[in-house]
Sequence to fold (284 residues):
Amino acid sequence: MLSCGNDKSIRLWDLSTARELRRFDGHTSYVRHVRFSPDGRRIISCGDDSTVRIWDIDSGEQLAQFDGHQHAVLAAAILPGGTEAVSAGTDGYVRLWNIADESVIAKFKQPRHICSAAIAPQRQLIVVGTHSGDLYLIDLKARQQVQQIQATQSCLHDIAISPDGARIVSCGHHQPARVWNAKTGQGIFELPPVEHLESWKVAISNDSRILAAGAGSRILFYDIDSGAKLKTSIATGSFTQAMVFSADDQVLITGGGSFYEGTLGWLPISGQTIELWKLPWPLP
Fold:
């Protein structure tokens, strides 16, 4: 498992032992996003230092650095084939990169400030959410925007796109979380706003069937097509700031905590109990 945060580092963990296997240093500010390459041999990261970086997972060596964004970079991914990467930043640009020479292949300027982004690498799709509440879906293979959805009237704090590219989830400031048909732009269902909660946090399973929704210190699961609730809500014991499904969709991994203590959660989808790892701050 990979983690990142405001200590500027990226860490690789052994989930069976909760032991740190490797640390990747190089970013000079908060690291906002990290993910494995499709072949599992590299990782890509981005953050508030305006850079996108690629690392060798075995050696920890930095393999490439992409400069061009003017502000924080919110999300990045290596695309299938391993020769191209995509990133989205708060400067309003989505950039498609050539990994070999670190050059820009294409860039897409959005009309509003980007405040969230999500990527479906296998479908070569990226969706960005703006401060005005709009969703913009870009087909990277076709090099064009293919959908625009007016999701709400406020900043979209968190969004997700299903791996099959069929569903988009948007979470606005003190607004319901909404599930959309990515092709038609039509709404499917929504989760009501929660009192005193600024925004939902969401993740979609790798088989594109389950929506996990974090509401403060509780997590709920829904069928992403029907909106049916799949199980009772589960308490995490800390405020949920990020979530991701394991590759086999058997476990939901959560990240959260407070300024003084980080928390990683390990929640088997078939169970009702979450295992928590408490990480003191700052990490060694």
